[in-house]
Design a protein that fits this description.
about 300 residues, alpha/beta, Rossmann fold, 2 domains, 5-stranded parallel beta sheet, 4-stranded parallel beta sheet
Length: about 300
């Protein structure tokens, strides 16, 4: 293992320090590096996944020697704006060099260290429930390994920008905490909602999370002018919208969706398929899927209209 002085003079760190001027040029791009670290069993993997959902390029257990070069790469990249990496006790005896290397990395890229922790009793219980060995476990107990790990990570804890106690969090609550604390409102609404139209005569789509039957609405198929058109046609859409039950249905479903979507996000769902079905999948269901996309997009959600049975 190299000494701390050697670490400061190592090639990766010199490269990182050299990139300081570049950082000033890239400052307006909101570049950012988050280092997720902490006690084993505190939820680092779940936290990393949450950062990934916020648009961070996520890397688990990056070798410490590569950290300065990785920061330089992110700073220079036109594609990567934010990155999150996990650095923890799996790094081994080189872990004590992190505080020193971090000084060079922060000169290249805005960097913050997020340290996750939990009470010893909670950590022991989690290891018991998952039946996974502690990374430091040899012939020692989990409790003894936790004590040893705390000693190894104490210098890193002292330089952390954010401390999160996950003792009272489950996986979903930790994810929600990360999203709330580190994400912006537009990032939190990352859920992709697919509004799918289909015809019942061709079967219910197997991948639908929710299905709404709109066959109760008057069918434009029986209007000669509309028979060969679809629900994307403005006149067809206006015809369907002309009935009071259409307006009430859309109002009620929109309210339901706006109530449900934040809860789906909190539970970690990334994709949601909402299906609207009519007889043939050409008029009513198409119009409903398109209109629901417009409403949800206006509310700030990512949406995608899909029309399974509409003529192409």
């Amino acid at each position: 293992m190299k000494s701390s002085k050697a670490a400061r003079n190592s090639k990766p760190v010199r490269a990182a320090i050299k990139g300081t001027g570049q950082l000033r040029k890239l400052g307006k791009m909101e570049k950012e590096l988050v280092i997720v670290t902490g006690i084993s069993g505190s939820g680092k993997a779940s936290a990393l996944k949450a950062f990934e959902d916020l648009g961070f390029h996520a890397v688990d257990n990056l070798p410490l020697e590569l950290l300065p070069d990785f920061a330089t790469l992110v700073g220079a990249s036109k594609e990567l704006e934010k990155a999150a990496i996990v650095v923890d006790v799996r790094e081994g005896t080189t872990l004590d060099r992190l505080p020193e290397i971090l000084k060079g990395v922060k000169k290249v890229l805005p960097t913050r260290v997020v340290f996750l922790d939990a009470q010893d009793a909670v950590l022991v219980r989690r290891y018991s429930e998952t039946r996974r060995p502690h990374p430091l476990s040899r012939s020692e107990t989990v409790s003894r390994s936790i004590v040893e790990e705390r000693q190894l990570l104490d210098p890193i804890r002292n330089v952390a920008d954010t401390l999160i106690d996950t003792s009272n969090f489950n996986v979903h609550e930790l994810r929600a905490h990360i999203l709330d604390r580190f994400g912006h409102e537009d990032q939190i609404k990352h859920l992709l909602v697919s509004c799918l139209s289909f015809g019942f005569k061709n079967g219910v789509p197997l991948d639908a999370d929710m299905v709404f039957d709109v066959r109760f609405l008057p069918n434009p198929h029986f209007v000669p002018e509309f028979r060969k058109k679809t629900g994307q046609d403005r006149k067809v859409a206006a015809y369907i919208n002309g009935f009071p039950q259409t307006t009430e249905f859309l109002t009620r479903v929109t309210e339901l969706m706006l109530y449900l979507l934040p809860h789906y996000i909190e539970e970690g769902k990334s994709y949601l398929t909402v299906a609207f079905g009519c007889t043939g999948g050409q008029h009513r269901s198409v119009m409903m899927a398109e209109e629901m996309c417009r409403r949800l997009k206006k509310a700030g959600y990512r949406v995608k209209p899909l029309h399974r049975d509409m003529p192409r």
